[in-house]
Amino acid sequence: MPVKTATRPETVSAASRLRQLQVPQQRRLRLALLLALGSSLLLIGQYGLLAWLLNQWLQAGLNSDFSTTAPPALLPVFIALAGCMLLRPALQYGRERLCLAASVQIRHQLRERVLHALAQPASQLAHSDSEGELASRVLDQVDALDGYLQRYVVQAQLALLVPLLLLVVITPFSGLAALLLLLTAPLVPLFMIILGKAASASSRKQLQALSRLGGRFLDLVRGMRTLQQLQATAQAQEQVAQAAEGYRQRTMAVLRLAFLSSAVLEFFAALSIALVAVYLGLGLLGILPWAKEVIPVPYAGALFILLLAPEFYAPLRQLGNDYHAKADAEAAMQELEPLLQQSGWQHSGEQPLQGSLPVCIQARDVRVCSAAGRSRLQLESLHLPAGHSLLLQGASGAGKSSLLQVLLGALPYSGSLTINGQDFATLHLPDWLDALDYLAQTPGFIEGSLADNLRLACPPATDTQLQQALSQVGLGELLAERGLDWPLSERGSGLSGGQLSRLALARLLLRDRPLWLLDEPTAHLDPDSRRQIHQLLQQLARGRSLILVSHSSTGLDWVDQRLELTASTVAEVPNATA
To answer: Under the phi-then-psi rule, with left for phi > 0, alpha for psi from -120 to 50, and beta for the rest, what region is 352?
Structure first.
């Protein structure tokens, strides 16, 4: 029977993902664009009326009649001018309100998608980021899209449409002035792109630094009691101050690029406007080298063009000022993309697990790629018989944790993966998760008693069952000394690293699942404690299928198979004792 393949969804770039997020709010954004275009049309009309009035004033020679009482024919002009001046702010306000509403809705929906991805059982098991980093993603990185959605999206279209509209208006008065504007316009987006790429890289580093700063600060706050007992609060304060100073320096680097970009854009815009002004001024004086004593553009037309020239570059300058908002948004989306990709991919199998337990796992040509398209796992073959143990080893980035996350249903993959001969893609994920247990490098604990933390694994467990589990993992002396009611903090302070690892193993025993996935449970232990935990696993894993990720082989001679993962190849090596 052919084996189905669970394929990775197509990789989506940050720019494409941002465009996808805008689709539900296209109506509001289009209406905001129409209001902005309406404001530009009113501005053209306003400047046209001003140029006409000033020309009339000049033609009248500033006589006393005109200066004291306006002729009746001018009243409609003044009314129209006042209408333009009043309607433009109203249209701008409407545009801003629409863009704000679109931004709020898009960020709300995006935050819901991120929270939904984090709420998935497989994601909760497989996620390795600290709570501070996750909080930064949900709050700060989602909010980093606000400037892009409120300003850049509409402004990017205005930067194209408004200059074209002004060229159409200016060309009948002076084709050469329109040509000068057209030839100098590309300088603004050119330098905007050059500086914008540097700003994008700086923004990405800034967001990563903010996530790390949030995680570090949360860890220190949680460990404040221990820090006070060790009289190490001064050192912790210094660490936070250094991290905050590093974040400040990165922020200032981003701001320097933003100000540099604005200064460059203003310089080229001013230079271009000066060229147009010199041409029009020399033309009015009749001293153009190619048109002596000829006025190519009359006063009214020249004044109209000169009033519109700054507005020709204004959308481009504003787009340059807002380009850093685009850089921030793309950097944030790159950080959020793994969660969004996971949210968009669902393990949709519905078949219950068939066959006897413990399970037999087989894999062939399994591939996992990151959101950026880079390879995270390349597994040629794997065969784990029921009730056997497997040791996964390899350098960082070789795909050890990625393989466990595939088995947890938290990552999309390509290739063949079967459980008891049944295609993994067809399995009902909640039922499959009930057949396994996962232990990360840093097990989670809650603030409560020893019994409360054990009952996280099995709420109906009796005190006798809890005591038996603790005795099996070598915590009988701790139990006799402190009892089940002994309080434990959120991070397990009060127990050594080895005792916390044993406590985590006791929870595995209480759940009593036929498959254990252990992701470097002894990574933070000293060699003696690591050896003891590995030897303890030999006893506890009997009758179960076990996949253990560990950089150290100390005390693991009993493991049936060893799999060495590299970035490009996978070599399966059976243990000599297997």
So the answer is: beta
**Residue 460, phi then psi, degrees to nearest 5:** -80, 5
Residue 354 domain-assigned (yes or no): no
Taking Cα atoms as reference points, which of 408, 405, 419, 409 lies closest to residue 359? 419
What's the 3-state SS for 461-501?
CCHHHHHHHHHHCCCHHHHHHHCCCCEECCCCCCCCHHHHH
Residue 543 C-beta-side C-alpha neighbours within 13 Å? 5
Residue 2: the pLDDT is 39
Give the per-residue pLDDT at 570. Answer: 44
State residue 567's pLDDT score. Answer: 63
**pLDDT, tens only, 105-154:** 999 988 888 887 777 655 555 555 555 566 667 777 888 888 899 999 99
Residue 349 domain-assigned (yes or no): no
pTM of the model: 0.63
Which residue type, as a one-letter code, is found at position 80? A
Closest CA to 284 of 45, 58, 53: 58
Domain-terminating residue out of 288, 313, 344: 344
Closest CA to 359 of 264, 427, 293, 307: 427
Whose tokens are 């990151």? That residue is 370
State whether 269 and 379 are in the same domain: no
Same domain, 446 and 337: no
CA 272 – CA 282 distance, rounded (Å): 16
Domain that includes residue 456, residue range: 361-574
Percent of the chain as helix, strand, coil, to the nearest 5: 60, 10, 25
Answer yes or no: do 496 and 543 share one domain.
Answer: yes
And the tokens for 151? 């300003």
- Which residue in 262, 255, 270, 250 sits closest to 192, CA to CA? 262
| 388 lies in the same domain as 321 | no
Kindly give, in sequence order, each residue whose CB lies less than 8 Å from that of residue 459, ignoring residues fewer than 6 positions away: none
Q: Hey, what are 140's tokens? A: 């700060």
Q: How many domains does the chain have?
A: 2
Output phi, psi for 331, to 5 deg.
Answer: -60, -40
